[in-house]
Input
Amino acid sequence: MATDHTHDPGARSWLASANAPGTDFPIQNLPFGVFRPAAGAAARGGVAIGDAIVDLAALSAAGVLGGVAAQGAAACAQPVLNDFMAMGPPAWRGLRHALFALLRADAGGAGADALRASLVPQADAELLLPTRIGDYTDFYTSIHHARNVGRVIRPDNPLTPNFQWLPIAYHGRASSVVVSGGGFHRPMGQARPPGSPAPLYGPCARLDYELEMGFYVGPGNAQGRRIPLADAEQHIFGMCLLNDWSARDHQFWEMDPLGPFLGKNFCTTVSPWVVTMDALAPFRVPFERPADEPQPLPYLDEPGNRARGGVDVRLEVRLETAEHRQRGLPPDRLSATSLRHQYWTPAQMLAQHTVGGCNLQSGDLLGTGTISGPTEEEAGAIVELSRGGTRQVALPATGETRTFLQDHDTVILRGWCEKAGAARIGFGESRGTVWPAADA
Output
């Protein structure tokens, strides 16, 4: 993914809000999503720019685009982006370039007029899931998170023998993936308290968040035909923020001997905007593995991935309690880290997913797993910050503390890319609230 004129940090838009300092959605970003412009309206694809959305159904109907950009906009006029994602990089890039040209400060003519007419204020829109998610897979690719959580479960041997040899994953539940802004009921299930001879049934007592990113599959692959690592990024459309909520007490009890089930399947919250891999091109970083650690097997190793396989996305977690809301206080920041710390890259995850013959489909969602950095302040889950519930996590704004999440807590994930010589681009936020357990 090479940089081009759409990454020019000096580029400006005629839409003033797209040029505001700190905006997540400048002209260099142009993330895709799905929205309803008004209550009762049909869902359609859109692109975020400043505080507005380009209605791609309206722009397509205006007939001002040509070639592959017109084909891409027509695909985005549907209620989900699956067909557009299936078209592949030429269509993604063609539409991105066409929108960039129409949004530039010096743009004029019928095309720019049609785009102006297609704008919808983000504040008036209902944001929806961007794809029809056929399958959802969540990986486990932060060595720092694995060691931190492993010490809670297996203090003497926190890292499993396979972790440094392949991207580990489990099959998640696509039906419970929801878009940012809502909430979920505290899950019910079994857990065995320490020292108890038998498990107890009841609401989760150790509810956690997980700071993750997700990525959406573009073109899929035929069953039995793997995607080589060198080709993997041609099958990744873009990335979002993802919170893989976790019922730790249920999870740790049921993961003997199989993987996560009820501890993970009740809710996963994603941000609505998908930042394309093209937009992330200026923020690619090398994939580096310490020389004294196992090196990837040949099918998980190739020069392009070593040179630019990582992405430096800065991430943070904030917690807003009922007390914050009642007193009008800003949420407390719990931690901050970067995607660049992951032990495996998105391309390696996708290649591993298909190596046995699994057929991915356009619009499928893959999660990176919890993203934690090497320091205590970079932990991506509260189970790490509280050391398995043995230490209180302070919330300075209200004077409260937490070991795990309480009812009415809201967790907010934010992400952005920023460096000298490039325009800052953002992901918006993934926001979700814990509701009390529902009656049976």
